[in-house]
Design brief:
The protein is built from 3 helices and no strands. The protein is mainly alpha-helical. The longest helix is centred in the N-terminal third of the chain and has 34 residues, at 2-35.
């Protein structure tokens, strides 16, 4: 009886233990990688990302964009406004959904 019950529970226990081991190994790998020093290429990449982020925040948009870039953006915005009927294309549209009126149906 006990052996039969254990054989029924074995797949469930195995799946639970397997899941816990995968989670623990995954967390351990992340912690180990953070503790380990980055290789030179990764370090350079992360430094460039941080540098670009600071430049982007200080510039208020695209980094190293000249007047030609801004003119192209404005041209494309005017094309889209002509194509789609105007409006402010730089912000997300506001959607307003009207609640439908439902009638109660009484079955006889």
């Amino acid at each position: 009886m006990i052996l039969q019950r254990l054989s029924q529970l074995y797949p469930l226990l195995r799946a639970a233990v397997s899941l816990q081991l995968r989670r623990n190994l995954g967390l351990t790998a992340v912690a180990f990688n953070k503790a380990k020093e980055l290789d030179p290429v990764q370090k350079l990449f992360v430094e460039k990302l941080r540098e670009y982020t600071t430049k982007s925040k200080s510039a208020g948009g695209v980094v190293d964009a000249g007047p030609e870039y801004q003119r192209n953006v404005n041209d494309e915005l005017t094309k889209l406004q002509r194509l789609y009927g105007g409006g402010d294309l730089t912000k997300f549209p506001d959607f307003k959904f009207v609640e439908p009126k439902l009638e109660e149906v009484i079955s006889k």
